[in-house]
């Protein structure tokens, strides 16, 4: 989708948010946050996720997406990210995507043992999800388990991990991991 089309969608969403009742505007605002995130406009995306959470503190996608974004953008915000994702899990249950996000937050918080445990559990529940293998490789590499990290990274690639599947913030960590694992 071209930049002009994305700008048109963004304008339409912003206009609709202003005109709609709260429940509809919450959905639209969350969608706008996601659109801006995918464009790499993280500060604006964060504003929209926070607005959604001001109206609905248990909004699943906003809790998950904001926790992910905060953890990957700024290690000083991992505590807030952990609080957000824990709230999502407490309210919505241990959905594998939420557990995967919590594991990434834990990696960024340097709580590698807990992250490894959660990723192994998540991977057992969804063994064909390449994101879990990628995150597992990241955590293993951080703990010095380079050979295991290489194996998991290969698994992630075999499962279909491609640049198109990765989000803008995760891409830099995946690329750095690829480089580190190929140079050791």
Report the strand count: 0
Low-pLDDT stretches are: none
The number of helical elements comes to 10
Instruction: Please provide the ordered H/E string of secondary-structure elements.
Output: HHHHHHHHHH
Radius of gyration: 17 Å
Q: Kindly report the average pLDDT value.
A: 87
Percent in strands: under 5%
Shape: globular
Q: What share of the residues lie within helices?
A: over 70%
Ends apart, CA distance between termini: 38 Å
Please outline the major beta sheet: none
Structural class label: mainly alpha
Labels describing this entry:
mainly alpha; 10 helices
Please describe what this structure looks like:
The chain starts with a helix and ends with a helix. The protein has a domain of about 55 residues. It is mainly α. The chain contains ten helices and no strands. Helices cover about 80% and strands about 0% of the residues.
What are the SSEs and their pairings?
Blueprint: H1 3-19, H2 22-38, H3 42-55, H4 60-73, H5 78-92, H6 96-108, H7 112-125, H8 130-142, H9 146-158, H10 168-183
Helix pairs in contact: 1-2, 2-3, 3-4, 4-5, 4-6, 5-6, 6-7, 6-8, 7-8, 8-9, 8-10
